[in-house]
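Sorry to interrupt, but I need a hand with the structure work. Can you supply me with one protein entry, sequence and fold together? No commentary is needed, just the two lines. Leave the record below and I will have a look.
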Amino acid sequence: MKTLSLLAYLRDAEDRAALELALSDFPGMAREIREGDVANATADAPAWTIIPEFLVLDVSASTDIEAALADLVAAAPEGDTNVIAVGCQERLDIYRRLRRMGVSEYAVSPIDPTEFRGLLNDIRGDRLSQGRAINPDRLIVTHAVRGGAGASSIAACLAEGVTRDHGKRALLLDLDIEGGSHYLTFGVEPAEGFLGMLETPKRIDALYLDRAMRRPSLRLSLLSTVCEVGPPEVDPASIDAIILQAQRAFDYVLVDLPCRALLGRELLAKAGHIVLVAPPTVLGLRDTLHTLNYIQANGGAGNVLVVVAKTGEYRNPVSENEFQQRTGCATLSIAFDPRAAEKTQVQTQTLLDAQGPIARQIEQLLARMPSAPQKKKRSFLSRLVRS
């Protein structure tokens, strides 16, 4: 299924034409208007990969609307959307029942283009007025407190593990604009449209994001590039815009935030899950404490895991226990194997594919991620039908 902003199932040809007319004021909205109703949507739902921003469903032939929506819930993938139901009766009780179920709006057939255009504007306005924010529980930030600590290798391992081993859909966002390497790690081309997204956040929508991303695997998508001419003029609002759009399409957004990032440091206070990567040195411990102070000072409340990354030999190294005592955070030690790192780099693999102790250490790290198998949560669509 291609990336759509609006997907509609309408039985009546006049309603389909009226909806097309209503959408003439939204030229940038990718849409598909199909003949059918909620039952047809349920039949097609298993093939969907991304939930559109708007889902317009004809429920006029449904004798039991709640049951029809429950069937759709069971068939559709997880995601976030605005459901607009279209019925043939102008009844307040139907409207109230649908609203209680989580449906955004109810329109009466035959569709009035002007009124429907107003519905779309009202829904979008409501979302903006509610201050739609990043979902911290689905944002994982890996941050190097000092350069050369191996944070990018760890971020790549997390992205591969979350998608391959945990079966989740994820976007890996590489914020090392001047020296990004994840596209090399996963053997794909740089995301050419990524720099344009960073410069003009107003252009970011589902279609733009879909075209810019690279896809190393079925569940993993990647935004990674390198700016060869100097740092671009980045709009700070672009990062939030990318993550907000990505969280509609993916289970998790993983961010690789380098030590001296041009942008994105504020994500440390927004993420629900933070992996701080530090070398086992006094300076590594100092910079870890500084980063934790920054998170606390900016209202961050995420779950922090400190990874003490040993990438070489150190004189008077700081132990994992001391890191844990001084930071008050859960701590994990990872010892990089130069041979394994070289082998995976040549074969465009991550350290998760390596043999030996480091792969087991990475697996321990993955087990602490929110994507690790646990009790199944209710999907977004299940909130449409509440017991």
Observations:
- The first helix runs from residue 13 to 22.
- The chain has two domains: 6-132, 136-367.
- The first strand starts at residue 6 and ends at 10.
